[in-house]
Amino acid sequence: MNIPCDIKLVVVDLDDTLLDSKGKISKATRTVMRQVSSKGIIVILATGRMTPCVEPFVDDLGIDCPVVVYNGAMVRDMRSAGRKILFHKTLESRFSDIVIDYCIKNNLCLNFYLDDIVYSQKNPDLKKFQRLYSKRTGARYVLVDDLMVFSGKRPTKLIIITDIQHRDVFRTRDYQFEYFSQLFDGQVQLFRTDPEYLEIQHRNTDKGIGVHIYAEKCKIKRNQIIAFGNGENDIAMLKYAGIGVAVKNASEIVKKHADIIAQWSNNEDCVARILKQYIL
Which GO terms describe its molecular function (predicted)? Predict the structure, then answer.
């Protein structure tokens, strides 16, 4: 496939796309991303992570990137623009209250994101899930005695963290996905991201909407955008971009929505190779 020569916006997912399996940006990828930025092309990092967990990668790249965070529920401008919030759509409390009550009653680990802080219940049974999430993302929890203190509040998003496998299927992510899919019946956005995570947010939020918000601000057309991703939460932005690239390690459902299925994985500098081949 031919890529237009007037690409003005490069959008890149973080985990398992830009980052290798150790959660790092390689030297080769860092170099290419800086070269792309030096040509006046805007680079956006688009991720399910919260803002504070993206900033270290902005530092590592050495590029003033706008960010699409929380799977598109929030869009922030460049640092030079004060990281101004350009878009923020929160989950209605009538849904979050149901999830809070459910997780407390069933002793499930719930992340509640409010004002760029992640809260969770103080409970010895949940520590292993909180440690897993912190190790993977660098997030620092604020633990509370009772998540019911957030009743009536609108979070940016929620994540239920479960076991990947369990003798009781109820305690798995895919069971929870089916349960909440039926319960909410399209009234919220559900994403299965990491094998342990079920992410719940406003029905009108995704990475595609987030990219659209920033592209409109800069008057950039869809055919001037290239996006890279690997997971289900990347599908909307791959479809929105003029060129959607699925890395080799992307799930099969993601590959069905991509314009290009790369021959390289996130451990083989896929993003850098594609950009170097078609843009630099």
Answer: magnesium ion binding; sugar-phosphatase activity
